[in-house]
Design goal:
Length: 81
Amino acid sequence: MPIYAYKCTECGFEQDVMQKMSDPLLTECPSCNKSTFAKQLSAAGFQLKGSGYYATDFKNSGSKPAEAPACGTGACPACVS
């Protein structure tokens, strides 16, 4: 579910709101009760729920990435030239 950033142009109140994409936009500021509450243009955050999701968003497969060859072995780009 996306998390949107809202800001009131009248009083400057800011709030992050978790809402469905199909939910209507919020317009009334919870702080000053004026209709100047608007969604900010930003990268939307989201929250994964349910089984099968990891806290880091990626499964740790346990394999290590390949290491670059050590210099002096003749296999690195500096030794080849």
